[in-house]
């Protein structure tokens, strides 16, 4: 799309268009294109020196069915590009996307790695089935040491860019170093170049995608880019493609900005290699038929991700007033049904997806105009709406637009702003700290300037740009921010769904709701093939630790395969597609075990980066029972559940480390010396 339809955005530092509401003009602005700088072209099979030292020749270069078989290796410090054969053994063990990226990242980082330094690699890895006919096979992952948490960082994303990368002949890209000037990476079939991005530096994500696509000649250009927030190193900056499909969590946009890498533009026209293509396509067709008959997916198709808000509200699971109110009726004004009735103009979706769960919206009246564009998801309407006691859907759609355009994760943005509102209303901070903004509950007027200030790292916005954990330390209120390991949680109150307490505490990247979307199991779904059972009561704790662990394992595999968590292909069809793609004789239990290996490896990275067991604690506000609503008086017995979870995982309770015998059982023997000495 051309953004906006009637007026093109100038650089954010040079002044905003009318819809954006004004700007102070102090973001960094690129200059003119340097003269005489030629594009730098990939040299086939010329790995960088750093990668040469990581693998032996025996480990590299063995062909793997289902994979392109090579990675693109980019060093932005010296401008070199090369290719490296995919490590076949690692591919079999860790599949792809975040799983395979974790195996590479383990060799590249340690506790001394600066998340925003040139030594921290940014790894973009596709899944095994990304870009195939798997329904919803669009997903890929951007991974690095997180600047928000200091731990394993992973941002999984749909859209079209991941599929294009596989179709261009690469399984992934490893980017190291830091460019002296803004650049973008242009990848075509079997070829890559580093190009000057000075004309795009300072632009928002929509305009960057539109201008780069136009410059490169067509709609088949798939652009993944950062906005001003990434350029300014906001610690929860995101990476966007397909307009507003966000690799949102853990600050991968800040890592990209630290390298002065504005965008990756991909034009891939090839086919993903498959061992038995017709067999694969037949399984994909069977999966699609099952998806089309799934009731929950039909709701997703009809109402988008916010379609479940009414159900979660009924359970008391929709957080409001920064996790202190259990029954906020105003949240119903933000639901998928409300979006459909008021501002929806169409639907959007990702590569190969029949569901099209994205909502296209438009607001033409009132103080918060929104051009026709992607609308807010469930997490956004809650984090930037109910979380702040705001029930104005048009205002929340505008907040979402600002976050997407500036390039920020809406969950962490809403979490940081919500914490600021809470501190203000508790009298811990005042107008002298907030640049004069009155952060009273429900005040819609202060949210847009706060979002802009965060993206610019200006004034009070620079405080919020560091995340809730840093705010907690700044104001000397230990344990008060609702975060785990530095990551603000998804919008599911664990006092309504006790399984989510374990999910938030044990996700390798912090309080993540996606690495086990156990709220779906709490809503009635089971996966008996891999040992995941609905216990029949959202607050019941018995049986959940093992079920959560098994669900995390399966979801870790699904992520690594490049499949969407929202659109679930039936497990038998997933197994059949893996067999057809690779020629591997595997079962559902084999793939779940692979997921457990992946999940464990990500925790091994955290241990290597300095994580300590005492950091694994419940936020103070979650320890307080609410005095109204469906969860009145209830707090999950999180520590008892966590102990049982550790027993099932075979992790040491005092240190949080997987026991040596467990690592051996998972084929992770090589990591025992690093972990246990």
Biggest sheet details:
6 strands, mixed
Strand order of the largest sheet: 3-2-7-4-5-6
Q: Total domains, how many?
A: 3
- Strand element count: 16
> Separation of termini?
55 Å
Q: What percent of residues are in strands? A: 5-15%
In helices, the fraction of residues equals 25-40%
Please state the second-level CATH architecture of the largest domain: 4-Layer Sandwich
Which structural category fits the helices and strands? alpha+beta
Low-confidence runs? 1-62
Give a description of the structure.
With 677 residues, this protein is α+β, with helices and mostly antiparallel strands. It has three domains: 43-267, Aldehyde ferredoxin oxidoreductase, N-terminal domain (Aldehyde Ferredoxin Oxidoreductase,  A, domain 1, 4-Layer Sandwich), CATH 3.60.9; 295-474, Aldehyde Ferredoxin Oxidoreductase Protein, subunit A, domain 2, CATH 1.10.569; 498-567 and 587-676, Orthogonal Bundle (Aldehyde Ferredoxin Oxidoreductase Protein, subunit A, domain 3). It is built from 25 helices and 16 strands. A six-stranded mixed beta sheet has the order 3-2-7-4-5-6, sandwiched between helices. It is globular, with a radius of gyration of 23 Å. Mean pLDDT is 90; it is low at 1-62.
Protein traits:
Aldehyde Ferredoxin Oxidoreductase,  A, domain 1, alpha+beta, disordered N terminus, Aldehyde Ferredoxin Oxidoreductase Protein, subunit A, domain 3, 5-stranded mixed β-sheet
Chart the SSEs and their pairings:
Layout: E1 40-41, H1 49-52, E2 70-75, E3 80-85, H2 88-94, H3 97-106, E4 122-126, E5 140-145, E6 152-157, H4 161-167, E7 172-176, E8 183-188, E9 191-196, H5 205-216, E10 222-225, H6 228-231, E11 239-241, E12 245-247, H7 252-258, E13 261-267, H8 277-292, H9 295-303, H10 309-315, H11 336-342, E14 344-348, E15 358-363, E16 370-374, H12 378-383, H13 393-406, H14 410-425, H15 447-456, H16 460-464, H17 468-474, H18 498-506, H19 518-522, H20 544-561, H21 571-582, H22 588-608, H23 638-649, H24 660-665, H25 672-676
Parallel strand pairs: 2-7, 8-13
Antiparallel strand pairs: 1-9, 2-3, 4-5, 4-7, 5-6, 8-9, 10-13, 11-12, 14-15, 15-16
Helix pairs in contact: 2-3, 3-20, 3-22, 8-21, 13-15, 18-20, 18-23, 20-22, 20-23
């Amino acid at each position: 799309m051309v953004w906006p339809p009637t007026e093109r955005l100038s650089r954010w530092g040079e002044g905003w268009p009318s819809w954006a509401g004004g700007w102070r003009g102090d973001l960094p602005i690129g200059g003119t294109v340097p003269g005489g700088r030629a594009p730098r072209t990939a040299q086939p099979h010329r790995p960088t020196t750093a990668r040469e030292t990581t693998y032996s020749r025996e480990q590299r270069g063995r062909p793997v069915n289902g994979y392109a078989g090579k990675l693109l290796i980019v060093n932005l410090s010296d401008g070199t590009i090369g290719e490296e054969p995919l490590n076949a053994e690692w591919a079999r063990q860790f599949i792809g996307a975040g799983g395979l990226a974790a195996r590479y990242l383990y060799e590249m980082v340690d506790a001394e790695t600066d998340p925003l330094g040139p030594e921290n690699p940014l790894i973009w890895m596709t899944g095994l089935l990304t870009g195939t006919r798997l329904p919803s096979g669009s997903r890929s992952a951007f991974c690095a040491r997180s600047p928000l948490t200091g731990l394993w960082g992973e941002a999984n994303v749909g859209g079209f860019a991941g599929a294009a990368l596989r179709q261009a002949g690469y399984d992934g890209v490893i980017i190291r170093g830091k460019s002296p000037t803004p650049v973008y990476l242009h990848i075509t079939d079997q070829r890559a170049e580093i190009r000057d991005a000075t004309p795009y530096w300072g632009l928002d994500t929509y305009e960057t995608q539109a201008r780069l696509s136009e410059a490169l000649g067509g709609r088949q250009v798939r652009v993944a880019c950062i906005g001003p927030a990434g350029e300014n190193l906001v610690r929860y900056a995101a990476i966007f493609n397909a307009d507003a499909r966000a690799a949102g969590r853990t600050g991968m946009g800040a890592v990209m900005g630290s390298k002065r890498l504005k965008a990756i533009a991909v034009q891939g026209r090839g086919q993903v290699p498959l061992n038995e293509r017709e067999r694969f396509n037949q399984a994909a067709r069977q999966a699609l038929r099952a998806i089309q008959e799934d009731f929950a997916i039909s709701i997703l198709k009809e109402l988008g991700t916010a379609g479940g808000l009414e159900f979660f509200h009924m359970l008391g699971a929709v957080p409001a007033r920064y996790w202190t109110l259990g029954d906020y009726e105003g949240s119903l004004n933000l639901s998928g049904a409300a979006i459909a009735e008021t501002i929806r103009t169409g639907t959007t979706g990702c590569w190969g997806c029949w569901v099209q769960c994205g909502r296209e919206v438009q607001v033409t009246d009132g103080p918060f105009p929104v051009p026709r564009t992607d609308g807010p998801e469930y997490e956004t309407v809650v984090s930037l709406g109910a979380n702040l006691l705001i029930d104005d859907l048009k205002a929340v759609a505008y907040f979402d637009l600002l976050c997407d355009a500036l390039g920020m994760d809406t969950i962490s943005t809403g979490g940081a702003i919500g914490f600021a509102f809470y501190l203000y209303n508790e009298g811990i901070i005042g107008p002298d700290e907030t640049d004069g903004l009155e952060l009273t509950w429900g005040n819609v007027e202060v949210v847009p300037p706060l979002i802009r200030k965060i993206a610019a790292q200006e004034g009070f916005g620079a405080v919020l740009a560091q995340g809730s954990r840093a705010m907690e330390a700044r104001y000397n209120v230990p344990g008060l921010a609702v975060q785990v390991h530095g990551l603000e949680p998804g919008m599911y109150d664990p006092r309504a769904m006790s399984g989510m307490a374990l999910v938030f505490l044990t996700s390798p990247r912090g309080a993540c709701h996606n690495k086990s979307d156990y709220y779906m199991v709490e809503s009635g779904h089971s996966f008996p093939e891999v040992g995941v059972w609905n216990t029949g009561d959202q607050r019941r704790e018995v049986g959940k630790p093992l079920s959560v662990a098994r669900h995390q394992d399966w979801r870790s595999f699904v992520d690594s395969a490049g499949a969407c968590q929202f659109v679930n292909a039936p497990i038998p069809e997933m197994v059949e597609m893996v067999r057809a793609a690779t020629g591997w004789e595997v079962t559902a239990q084999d793939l779940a075990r692979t997921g457990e290996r992946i999940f464990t490896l990500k925790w091994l990275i955290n241990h290597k980066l300095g994580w300590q067991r005492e950091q694994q604690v419940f936020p103070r506000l979650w320890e307080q029972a609410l005095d109204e609503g469906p969860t009145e008086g209830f707090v999950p017995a999180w520590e008892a559940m966590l102990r049982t979870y550790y027993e099932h995982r075979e992790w040491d309770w005092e240190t949080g480390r997987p026991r040596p015998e467990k690592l051996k059982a998972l084929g992770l023997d090589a990591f025992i010396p690093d972990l246990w000495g």
